[in-house]
Design goal:
Layout: H1 2-15, H2 17-36, H3 39-62, H4 67-85, H5 94-105, E1 112-113, E2 120-125, H6 126-133, H7 138-144, E3 152-156, H8 158-161, H9 169-180, H10 185-210, H11 215-222, H12 225-231, H13 237-256, H14 263-279, H15 295-298, H16 301-326, H17 337-346, H18 348-361, H19 363-370, E4 374-375, E5 380-381, H20 384-403, E6 407-409, H21 410-435, H22 452-455, E7 464-466, H23 479-501
Length: 502
């Protein structure tokens, strides 16, 4: 009898290896939580984690979803958990982003210079100012969540005054709704988070759906804890990343499919490029992807270059227009931006050496940020096992692309290299002008999350060379990948919760 039971147990474990491994890891997470929390808090939090995790696994096992729907099944519940697990203002620059989004919700497209001319900002609810002065955990959040004094105070946020209105369109929707319903300031801010997350989810879902290959890579990068953290925040980085992925996927889809471009295609490409350029001009080179679309999709070479030329002119125009509006706020940068610009123009070789030195000595920090070693405002460190696991997983995905029958034209690879290099230079230059002391040996403020909008293109460089883009559809079982991203995000949320309860 005992032998029969044992054989059944072994058989079940063999057929459900990943679920069993996930269970073991979750049990270990439970042990970690129990050692950090009181019994009451542990039971409540761990029960929620178990229920959500079990629900995700059951849905994934029961229904044969395609990968974009599996993205929804995983991203929605885990993203919502993270959205409420991270207290308001505990994501890099989120306080300043809330201030800028609130200002825009009042239809003020450009910030106001203070009376003493030392900063720029706007009169905003005093509760937002409190966020700048307090490091909120769950206790502070609970105590202040329903504050609604109606009082306003001038707040300076020069770092986010440089951002255009396009960067905050999703957040503004949530803030408008909250203000329309006369909800407390912090509740309204959470609605801004939620609306930003919804748009992020929508764009990533469609990106995974549209791209004919590398779906697992887009899926994986989007579900890194650092990506989810940006997605649930008030940061414009959420929409910037989502637009970048969507544009890339849409262009690849157009190249792969048959038939000419429709009016909808022209409109969608144009809107995406314009929004991306307005969100962050450093990602403007991503718009060059449309050059890769064959002229036969346009009907003729002439039509192609007329469209690209017209769009490029308009994108550059709106970008320069916004830069001219925001240029006066550069005077409130951390250091004298004019001195930095002068140094770049007069000593280009020396400046290039600064960038190279930064890449060498801060490359580790960039990789840390990309693969989610540090979360929140860099104060929560993930286990090295998770961090290295993400790097290994990404490497394996790239390796699999190199072994597949998919191939990529050399001109497309060269364009990707040029875009990645250009974005890298522009990110460094932006940080050098705004945040780095004059003639410093390295650039300050560089973070791995800034490179999320370009990293998902890199696997294409490992594909075989060919004259045309050839796609091998992935029909393999991706269960390991699904369970890996689920468990590591559950682990990340556990670390976040403990850091704010203890």
């Amino acid at each position: 009898m005992g032998g029969i039971i044992m054989r059944k147990i072994i058989s079940y474990l063999n057929n459900n290896k990943l679920e069993f491994l996930s269970l073991v890891i979750v049990i270990l997470i439970g042990i970690f939580l129990r050692n950090q929390l009181s019994l009451k808090k542990f039971i409540l939090i761990y029960a929620v984690i178990i229920i959500i995790l079990s629900s995700i696994i059951i849905v994934l096992r029961k229904f044969d979803f395609n990968i974009e729907k599996k993205f929804l099944v995983i991203a929605l519940p885990i993203g919502i958990m993270m959205l409420f697990a991270i207290p308001l203002g505990n994501i890099p620059d989120e306080r300043a982003h809330l201030a800028r989004a609130w200002e825009l919700s009042d239809f003020h497209l450009v910030s106001k210079i203070s009376k003493d001319e030392t900063t720029c900002g706007r009169e905003l609810p005093i509760e937002i100012d409190l966020l700048f002065k307090e490091n909120f955990n769950y206790r502070e959040t609970k105590e202040n969540l329903f504050l609604n004094s109606g009082k306003k105070v001038f707040m300076g946020f020069p770092n986010t005054s440089l951002y255009s209105f396009a960067s905050y369109l999703p957040q503004i929707i949530g803030i408008w709704l909250g203000r329309l319903l006369n909800l407390p300031t912090y509740v309204t801010a959470y609605l801004g988070r939620i609306s930003n997350f919804i748009i992020w989810i929508f764009l990533i879902y469609n990106a995974i759906k549209l791209i004919p290959f590398c779906k697992k890579i887009v899926f994986f990068i989007a579900l890194l804890p650092i990506s989810l953290q940006e997605g649930i925040s008030l940061s414009p980085d959420a929409i910037t990343f989502a637009l970048s992925v969507f544009l890339f996927s849409y262009v690849i889809n157009i190249i792969h499919r048959k038939g000419n471009l429709k009016k909808f295609d022209y409109a969608l490409i144009s809107v995406t490029c314009i929004l991306l350029a307005l969100c962050k001009i450093v990602y403007l080179p991503l718009c060059l992807l449309i050059i890769l679309i064959p002229f036969k999709r346009f009907g003729s070479k002439k039509k192609k270059w007329i469209f690209i030329g017209s769009l490029a002119s308009f994108v550059v125009f709106v970008s320069l227009l916004w830069l001219s509006c925001a240029n006066e706020f550069l005077q409130f940068a951390r250091f004298d931006s004019e001195l930095q610009k002068e140094f770049i123009l007069s000593h280009p070789f020396n400046y290039l050496m600064v960038i190279m030195r930064t890449a060498v000595y801060k490359g580790g920090e960039i990789v840390d940020g990309l693969f989610s070693y540090r979360l929140e405002s860099f104060n929560i460190e993930m286990p090295y096992l998770t961090y290295y696991g993400n790097m290994i997983a990404f490497s394996i995905l790239c390796y699999k692309e190199s072994l597949s029958k998919s191939s990529c034209p050399k001109n497309m690879k060269l364009m990707i290299i040029f875009i990645v290099f250009s974005v890298f230079i522009l990110i460094n230059t932006s940080l050098y002008i705004q945040w780095t002391s004059p003639q410093a040996g390295m650039i300050d403020g560089i973070q791995g999350r800034y490179f999320l909008p370009i990293i998902f293109m890199i696997p294409m460089l490992f594909m075989k060379n060919d004259d045309k883009l050839k796609i091998e559809k992935d029909n393999h079982n991706n269960s390991i990948l699904y369970y890996f991203v689920i468990v590591q995000n559950i682990l990340a949320i556990s670390f976040i919760i403990v850091s704010h309860l203890c």
